[in-house]
Design goal:
Elements: H1 2-6, E1 30-32, E2 37-42, E3 51-56, E4 60-62, E5 69-72, E6 75-77, H2 84-97, E7 101-104, E8 108-109, H3 115-138, H4 143-154, H5 165-181
Parallel strand pairs: 4-7
Antiparallel strand pairs: 1-2, 2-3, 3-4, 5-6, 7-8
C-alpha cells in the first residue's frame, strides 16, 4: 500500500518472505548481545504494542512514537493513537530510566543536555492536544470538525514526505478520539 501511495504505477516487488518473528518479547525481557543487553520496555500510547528498548551498558533508550516525535527545538508531535493515559505511563517509565542517550523515531539521538527538556515538551504537547480536544467538544464540534481543526493547527506540508495526507487524517481522527478519552488531566 505504501509503495502504491508513494510511487503510483510502480510494479516494484516488495519482498517480505524473509521477514519472520524470531522472538516474542514482553516488558522486562532482557536480550543478551554478548557484552551488551537490550531490555524491553512496554510503552503503550501510540499503539498497544509499542516498545522502547534500553541498551546497556550504553545507557541508551531507543524510543517509539508513544513518547513523541521531535519536529523542532520548540515542538514535539504527539502521535497518540490509542491512549494518552498510557502515553503518560510510558513517559514516566522512560523518563525514570534516566538514560544518558535518547534515540527518537524519525529523528535520531537527542543532544544529551536536551533529554529532560524533551520529556517536558512531550508532556506539554500531550496536554495541549487533550485541552484542545476538550475545548472543541465543549464548543459542540463534531469529530470531523475536530479533525479539521487539528489538521489546520498541526499539519505541515513537509509531513507529506513521510506520511500521505490521507493517512495523517486517519491518524488525526484516532488522536482526537484518544484525547477525548484522556483522564490524566
Amino acid at each position: 500500500v505504501a509503495r502504491d501511495l508513494y510511487t503510483p504505477g510502480s510494479d516494484l516487488e516488495i519482498k517480505t518472505n524473509y521477514l519472520e518473528v524470531e522472538q516474542i518479547v514482553h516488558e522486562g525481557d532482557v536480550i543478551s548481545l554478548g557484552d551488551e543487553t537490550i531490555t524491553v520496555i512496554e510503552t503503550k500510547g501510540h499503539t498497544d504494542c509499542s516498545l522502547t528498548y534500553a541498551v546497556e551498558p550504553m545507557n541508551l533508550l531507543i524510543c517509539c512514537e508513544s513518547t513523541g516525535l521531535i519536529e523542532s527545538l520548540t515542538y514535539v508531535n504527539t502521535p497518540i493513537l490509542k491512549s494518552f493515559d498510557d502515553a503518560m505511563e510510558s513517559l514516566a517509565k522512560v523518563r525514570s530510566y534516566g538514560a544518558k542517550y535518547v534515540c527518537l523515531p524519525h529523528f535520531g539521538l537527542l543532544p544529551t543536555d536536551f533529554n529532560e527538556k524533551y520529556w517536558d515538551m512531550f508532556k506539554a504537547g500531550c496536554d495541549e492536544v487533550v485541552d484542545f480536544a476538550r475545548k472543541w467538544r465543549n464548543d459542540g464540534l463534531t469529530i470531523e470538525e475536530m479533525v479539521q481543526e487539528y489538521y489546520n493547527r498541526y499539519w505541515n506540508p513537509l509531513f507529506i514526505k513521510e506520511q500521505p495526507k490521507k493517512a495523517y487524517l486517519i491518524n488525526t481522527e484516532a488522536t482526537v478520539k484518544a484525547a477525548l478519552k484522556a483522564a490524566y488531566r
